[in-house]
Every structure is written in structure tokens, then in C-alpha cells.
UniProtKB/TrEMBL annotation:
Keywords: Methyltransferase, S-adenosyl-L-methionine, Transferase, tRNA processing. It catalyses: guanosine(46) in tRNA + S-adenosyl-L-methionine = N(7)-methylguanosine(46) in tRNA + S-adenosyl-L-homocysteine. GO terms for molecular function: tRNA (guanine(46)-N7)-methyltransferase activity. InterPro entries: SAM-dependent_MTases_sf, tRNA_(Gua-N-7)_MeTrfase_Trmb, tRNA_methyltr_TrmB_bact. It holds the Pfam family Methyltransf_4. HAMAP family: tRNA_methyltr_TrmB. Catalyzes the formation of N(7)-methylguanine at position 46 (m7G46) in tRNA. It comes from Cellulomonas alba. This is tRNA (guanine-N(7)-)-methyltransferase. Belongs to the class I-like SAM-binding methyltransferase superfamily. TrmB family.
Amino acid sequence: MSQPSDAFRHVAARPHAPLRTFHPRRIALGKDRQDALRRLFPQLGFSVHDEPSFPRRADGTLDAEALFGRRAPLVLEIGPGMGDATVTMAAADPTRDVLAVEAHVPGIANLLVLVRDAGLTNVRVGHGDALDLVRDAIAPGSLDEVRAYFPDPWPKARHHKRRLVQPVHVSLLRSRVRVGGTLHVATDWAEYADQMLEVLVADPDLDCSGFSPRPPHRPVTKFEARGLDLGHESRDLIATRVR
């Protein structure tokens, strides 16, 4: 495997046609994280871009059964950050497989270490843009749930077009969720929360009854805890695909 600094360079440097819903960040990796990537990524991770390293079915879509070594309901988590919540939820729900897709390499390295230390077999880590993976390789109706906790709020009005939760992206994600499956998003940015609600309620194939209390199965993330300390209010929205 290439050195991590080379193997993961393309996400920040490669030009893409679609607008990115995240800030590409270049962060130096310490020795421990480089070592984690070198040892764990070939076992538990795969690349979304350039040379995708995930197993595919004959139609080109992701073969989750081959990736995880079993057949189980599949959850897509977009932007797991440093992975604390991902690992907690996966450990509490071993009957489902979690595909966590993150663009930022330090988060990937940390998540890989957490997965290894917890001894989990139901988590795989994708590096790259989750929307590209969904567009190109996730079969319609194949996901049990999509999660996106605290995506970048892009607070400036001119950047709202980059937000993850907007009609075109929600339509795409919903199409990959089975009927009866869910789309669960959360934010502590009040104006973004209102937009999320508007978008989810407007989708004719989703049932969203409004803001929900944080469900017990979603732990408070470190990012969320910092916001709560600053007086931010977190809001969850859980929408169910009805047709």
C-alpha cells in the first residue's frame, strides 16, 4: 500500500464536477495515524475514488455481502467524523452492517483504530465523497438507513447550494433506501434545521412528522457536546420512506 499521504491525496486535490458538500482539509498525520492507515485500511477500508477498492456485483453496484462477509441490513453513515458515535451505535446493533464514508483522513484513521479496539466486524470505512458512492455504486432500495449527523451547515447564503440536505441529494439518498427504511439527520445550526425540515417534509416519498428528541440509540458526539456547552440546540429529524 502507498504511504497514506499519497494514497489519500486525491480527494482534496482532484477536481470534481459536482459541488462538494464538505471542506477538503489538508491535515498532517502523526506517526500513529499513519501506522493505523497502513495496517488497518487494507482490512477495513476502501477507496471511493480513482481506483475503487470495494467488491462489486455484475451490475457494478457495491456487493455488501462480499464486503462484510455476510448478508445483513446495511446502514450508510455520511461523515462519521472521528467515529466515536459510529462505533458506539455499531456495537449496540450488531445485527446491522455500517458503511461509514468520510472524506477526511484523520477521521478515517481514528475510526479504524476505534473499530479495531472494539473488535467490531460490522463496520467498513470508505474514503471519499459519500454522494459519489451513492450515485455510482449503491443499488436502489438496498439501504436500511442513511445517517448524517451534523453535516457542514455552510452558513453563508451563497454556500447553501453546497449543503448535504437539499432536495436533489435527499431524492438521491431516499431512492437508495428500502421502503420502510429511514433517513436520520441532525444539526445544531437552527437555520439549517429549518431547511432540513422543509426539504424532508416536501419529499412526497418520505414521511417526516417534524423534529424529534434525540433518540436513545444516537449518542451525543464530541462535536455536539461542544455545541451544547456553547448553548446550541441539537435537532434530529427522522424520515421514513413510504413508497
